[in-house]
Design goal:
8 strands, alpha/beta, Rossmann fold, 434 Repressor (Amino-terminal Domain), Four Helix Bundle (Hemerythrin (Met), subunit A), binds guanosine-5'-diphosphate, eight-stranded mixed sheet
Length: 451
């Protein structure tokens, strides 16, 4: 799921790597690629259109951040917009103030409702609830038996309309509305605090089925109506979701079969088109293959940018705006980069956490693991010690640091003179680079790239 979409997006972002500034043409090309990738992933056309125009507007807009380079900035925007179309905040199940909480499941036949009923009830049981499953799918042969099997696996009782079967209950047969009502009454009487009502579906949306679902809903006034949709159905997802929205007006969406090789379009379209949040994800046939749906986590899974997103968050949280502004002004005034600035920058980097941890979070870090393991954080300590052994005058005018001063700095910081020489050499290069950058604009945090 999402593999090819992820690959396409990652490839798109790679093209932005190392760019100091994004031209309108860069943004256009990127947005075009994103649009194509989404369409190929079966995302509904209106959703793609809206998404692309939001990205373009924001990428060209004034969202400039000192902490991020332009490539990271675009990743951040795309990520935020993905979270938005996936429904924004994580939406929790609404429990009734006066139990039982009534949850009704709706969706096409084969969408995964019965399977979900088992998963949801097991999960709720694990949370300390005592759910009751109610079998109102009287259309499909075996649906009731299937729910009973699922209930047994979940260790949750099933209220079913067939006396004499494995059910421990006796319920009216034939009329799903009556079964639903009786099920809720049973739950109230036996002190089940959650009732999950499984309803019938058809292979296609039809008026009779929708009418039945609506009558069940009106009879039991559920706290949640969950619309279960097979993530594999692609472009059809939008029409199906709209039909159920008109028909039963669901309160939340459950995406099933997210473990399959669907291209992900349904997942990205349904919440956006209906304005209803995706609440759960079903990821297999087993009773435990079930997750709460977190739009933010799903978005990072789609972007598949390693942990670059948390890196971006960290950089933004810790980036000292005043310091960045001071540096920017310095560049603009063509002042020299000094060891005082160098120290200030090292403080910024330190604030962002352990260097090694940061590097490990970069995409592709797995391949560099060995080198990273060898990376010695004390190297930064040594550099800092050398700078601190310089006099204030030396820090501002490093040119005066001659041989005897180098020897003194080495002694003061407990390193070899060759290390001081190396530092001064690297510093000279950095100074030159800073000059160049001053002419070409601030490319964001020096030393950080997109991987
Ligand atoms: P219902 O008609 O809506 O009740 O659908 P079912 O719960 O009977 O599911 C239809 C088929 O899809 C069954 O074979 C399930 O085992 C399978 N299924 C349901 N959910 C998932 C899922 O998340 N992943 C996979 N791979 N199969 C699923």
């Amino acid at each position: 799921m999402f593999n090819s979409l992820s690959d396409r997006l990652t490839a798109t972002f790679k093209n932005l790597r190392g760019k100091g500034r994004l031209s309108e043409a860069d943004v256009d090309a990127t947005v075009r690629e994103i649009r194509r990738a989404l369409l190929d992933a079966d995302v509904a056309v209106p959703v793609v259109r809206e998404f692309a125009s939001r990205i373009k507007e924001r990428a060209l807009g004034s969202e400039v951040s000192g902490a991020l380079n332009p490539g990271q900035q675009v990743v951040k925007i795309v990520n935020e917009e993905l979270v938005t179309i996936l429904g924004g905040e994580t939406r929790r199940l609404r429990l009734a103030k006066n139990p039982p909480t009534v949850i009704m499941l709706a969706g096409l036949q084969g969408a995964g409702k019965t399977t979900l009923a088992g998963k949801l009830s097991k999960w709720l049981k694990g949370q300390g609830h005592s759910p009751l499953l109610v079998a109102c799918d009287l259309q499909r042969p075996n649906a009731v038996t299937q729910l009973q099997v699922v209930g047994k696996r979940a260790g949750v009782p099933v209220f079913a309309p067939h006396p004499g079967t494995t059910s421990e209950f006796d319920a009216p047969t034939g009329d799903p509305v009556a079964v639903a009502e009786a099920g809720v009454a049973e739950a109230r009487q036996k002190l089940h605090d959650v009732v999950i009502v499984d309803t019938a579906g058809r292979l296609g949306v039809d008026a009779e089925m929708m009418d039945q679902a609506r009558r069940i809903r009106d009879a039991i006034t559920p706290d949640e109506v969950l619309f279960v949709i097979d993530a594999m159905i692609g472009q059809d997802a939008v029409n199906t979701a709209k039909a159920f929205e008109d028909g039963v007006d669901f309160t939340g969406v459950v995406l099933s079969k997210l473990d399959g090789d669907a291209r992900g379009g349904a997942a990205l379209s349904v919440a956006s088109v209906t304005g209803k949040p995706v609440m759960f994800a079903s990821t297999g046939e087993g009773v435990d293959d079930f997750e709460l749906f977190h739009p933010d986590r799903m978005a990072s899974r789609i972007l598949d940018m390693g942990d670059i997103l948390s890196l971006i968050e960290q950089a933004e949280a810790n980036w000292d705006k005043d310091e960045a502004a001071r540096m920017a002004k310095k560049f603009a005034d063509q002042e020299d980069f000094t060891f005082e600035d160098f120290l200030a920058q090292m403080q910024q980097i330190r604030k962002m956490g352990s260097m090694k941890k940061m590097l490990m979070m970069m995409p592709g870090a797995q391949n560099m693991r060995q080198q990273l393991e060898q990376f010695d954080e004390r190297e930064i300590d040594r550099v800092e010690a050398m700078v601190r052994s310089m006099t204030p005058h030396e820090r501002l005018a490093p040119k005066i640091i001659n041989g005897s001063r180098r020897a003194r700095i080495a002694r003061g910081s407990g390193v070899h003179v060759s290390e001081v020489n190396g530092l001064l050499e690297r510093f000279g290069q950095a100074q030159k680079m800073m000059k160049k950058m001053a002419q070409g604009g601030m490319p964001g945090m020096p030393g950080m790239s997109m991987g």
